[in-house]
Specification:
Order of helices and strands: HEEEEEEEEEEEHEHE
Largest sheet: 4 strands, antiparallel
GO molecular function, one term: acid phosphatase activity
Bound molecules: 2-acetamido-2-deoxy-beta-D-glucopyranose, fe (ii) ion
Cofactor: Zn(2+); Fe cation
Oligomer: single chain
Family: Belongs to the metallophosphoesterase superfamily. Purple acid phosphatase family.
Strand content: 15-25%
Radius of gyration: 22 Å
Strand order of the largest sheet: 1-2-8-5
Shape: globular
Domain Purple acid phosphatase N-terminal: 56-147
Catalytic activity: a phosphate monoester + H2O = an alcohol + phosphate
Structural class: alpha+beta
Number of strands: 13
Length: 245
């Protein structure tokens, strides 16, 4: 009997010490309310199209290499193909550089996308603030990002983690909560289920565009790193869409 208590105590101590080691801390006491929340209406402020003819919208960045010296900038122009060029410069560097990207479009059932631009910027310095500009003339738009520190043991870097975001008013609260968190995420790991456009009749892909405009306020300023969830599956043979994603 005594031995069993000994070993139980040992196991409890082991669990406690392990819990101590892996404890990442609690950054917020926030608990989401249980009510179902509806998608924000199409005329919501967060979905507003930036002013000006063919202005870049849905601007977002992701990591462009394995080291942290590359960034991929993506954006959409609605009316016609835009400039494929990203102008960028380090905050303290002065010299402005250009990177050239490419443009894609796609169709889904009766939806036709805008002009989707992707451009990779390479050979950036670590731990540096860069400004970048997309678009032409008076409809060009400026953003910025910080590159990560040089990789190494014990180099601090703070990732945010979001999944199942969608575009309801709760989604907006979640994003605001992330923006205001004092822990200050430097990059975001998105664990799938982005826009929930597939919940709409014919998977209304216009709800991808609203989602892109909604998240721009964060996703244009720090890399979001993506995985696909089940809501990214657009297989709908009943409307002739047979590609899974
Ligand atoms: C949740 O729904 C109930 C019933 O409709 C309502 O009384 C309550 O105020 C709602 N709570 C929130 C946080 O919206
Ligand atoms: C941009 O310039 C054009 C003409 O040069 C003008 O018609 C348009 O209203 C301007 N747009 C913005 C957003 O200032
Ligand atoms: C696509 O088809 C649906 C159903 O017929 C219709 O409600 C919707 O307005 C159409 N969308 C476009 C962009 O034509
Ligand atoms: C979304 O949140 C932002 C920032 O908190 C706020 O300014 C905006 O009005 C909200 N929009 C909607 C539709 O909830
Ligand atoms: Fe999910």
């Amino acid at each position: 009997m005594e031995r069993r208590w000994d070993s139980l105590l040992f196991v409890v101590c082991l669990i406690l010490s392990f819990a101590e080691i892996v404890n990442g801390g609690i950054t917020s006491s926030y608990v989401r309310h249980a009510n179902f929340s509806l998608d924000m209406p199409l005329d919501s402020d967060v979905f507003r199209v930036p002013p000006g003819y063919n202005a870049p919208q849905q601007v977002h960045i992701t990591q462009g290499d394995h080291e942290g010296k590359g960034v991929i900038v993506s954006w959409v122009t609605q009316d016609e193909p835009g400039s494929k060029t990203v102008l960028y410069w380090a905050e303290n560097g002065g010299l402005k550089k250009l990177a050239e990207g490419f443009i894609l479009t796609y169709k889904y059932y009766n939806y036709t996308s805008g002009y989707i631009h992707h451009c990779t910027i390479e050979d950036l310095e670590f731990d540096t603030k860069y400004y970048y500009e997309v678009g032409i003339g008076n409809t060009s738009r400026q953003f910025w990002f910080l590159t990560p520190p040089k990789p190494g043991p014990d180099v601090p870097y703070t990732f945010g983690l979001i999944g199942d975001l969608g575009q309801t008013s709760d989604s907006n609260r979640t994003l605001t909560h992330y923006e205001l968190n004092p822990a200050k995420g430097q990059a975001l790991l998105f664990v799938g289920d982005l826009s929930y456009a597939n919940d709409y009749p014919f998977h209304d892909n216009a709800r991808w565009d609203t989602w892109g405009r909604f998240v721009e306020r964060v996703a244009a300023y720090q890399p979001w790193i993506w995985t696909a969830g089940n809501h990214e599956i657009d297989f709908a043979p009943e409307i002739g869409e047979r590609q899974p994603i």
